[in-house]
Model the fold of this input.
Amino acid sequence: MSVQESAIVQFDNVGLRYGTEREVLSNISFTLFSGRFYFLTGASGAGKTSLLKLLYLAQRPSRGGMRMFGTDVITMPRDQLPKFRRRMGVVFQDFRLVDHLSAFDNIALPLRVSGVRESDLEGPVNDMLEWVGLGHRADARPATLSGGEQQRVAIARAVIARPEILVADEPTGNVDPEMALKLIRLFEALNRLGTTVVVATHDVQLIRKVPESLIMRLDKGTLSDPTGALRYPPKRTSGTGMPE
Amino acid sequence: MKRPPTLGRAVDRGLAPFRGRRAAHLLPRTRLGGPVPWVIAIMTALTVLAVGGALALSNLAASARGELAGSATVQILEADPDLRAEQTERVAALLRQDASVEAVRIVPESEIAALLEPWLGTGEAVEAVPLPALIDLQLAAGAGEAQIEALEGRIAAAAPSARIDAQEAWLAPVLEALNSLRYMAFALIALLAFTGAAAVWLAARNALDGNRDTIEIVHLLGGSDEQVARVFQRSILFDALAGGVLGLALGTGAILLVATRFAALDSGMVAGGTLLPTDWAIVALVPLFAVGIAVYTARMTVLSSLRKML
Done:
């Protein structure tokens, strides 16, 4: 397999600044390979969320080059972006559920946006609700769900359309250890089906639960590569070398 | 552990339409509703009145112009009744021989007296007033001012006190006034359309601001500008339809009321301003135009705002 065939995301000397402030990300260069499981770690304020925003195309970098699915997304016309976003699943740190939609409708949203027929989406959405333990809360609005339940709905929404790349920002921050493990197993299952997974987390225990994962560490806006994850071919590790 | 559920295959990634029931509840209904249907109802009612008024004035002007086109009146202003009668016959004979004149009618004295009755009354006092003799004539098709001027010269030779007036000439200021009113009605229609569009623009902007989070989420999940715009279009479509139908009912009711009042005047000229079936069809199209303007404005507003997002 060549580099071009397996590379799903390529950052080349990317910098990001908001307004006239100093850069929150500087000289970020890395390649994510199809079918791998990545953890993005780093202290609070290191720039993890900013990097994820670039990944899920909510933000364009201030400088540098960026390719996704083999296409230059810096020069890509704006009307082409939705096609690329539909190939991703995103778990936002603040969940970003639609307040007036039920749990069912929130989870069904990516399928509806992609044009899946109502008759085709009911089964998968109900299965997903059951799997995240919210089968009995299908009609509940986000405001009536606990933080953990909202997080499970957000994760279900991100994975329902079987994305090619899943980007999750602290996806287990509000759930108990048992549910956290269950969710990480879901991510692993998706990963085995070919989805590239990028999870930003502080949780060292969580990283240890995915021995084949690769680790990227952000420190004050610059990226380090403690496990050789960003080299090609990436070094297969079991989480060793990870910051304790 | 139970295997996590996944779709049998990755979903179709095409830019599929996002409409109908699935899109209907993406934005909460109440946030787009509000005053929009009422604003559109008022705008439609006023536009229906303006369109109805403009069409009635057009019909009135056309009817008056049609009735008076090619008509002229010769007045014999002679105090001596015998001389006046003689001059009248002479002028009438001259006119009958003229190729540019199609029909000639000497207006009977009784008819002239009846015309003046509202001002002069009846009785001996009226008989003492020397009334001019009148000859109505209808010019041949194609005859115009040049022919009237030529006739004036020939009549003057036969009856020095005779004067010829083209009826269209004295009606010209009235027609000009009617035209001014008509143009004003058209300007009012344009102004109302602009104001309605501005109201929809404001409502769409407010709705967009109120739903910014939802729109951003839909964008990040792969929703296109077109899909989001359709949601707004759909919402504004129902508001505009409701407002349009209500406005049409109000406007039509007002036109019928005014028409009843004018009909009571029993004036021949006012009767010419009646709305024809085609006019009513045009009036009925007003709410459809209102809906069209509202939907187009909402679409443009939403698309222009969305283009500012990544």
Summary: The CA atoms of residues 93 and 169 of chain A lie 5 Å apart. The domain at 1-87+163-239 of chain A is CATH 3.40.50.300 (Rossmann fold). The longest strand of chain A covers residues 7-16. Chain A has two domains: 1-87+163-239, 99-162.
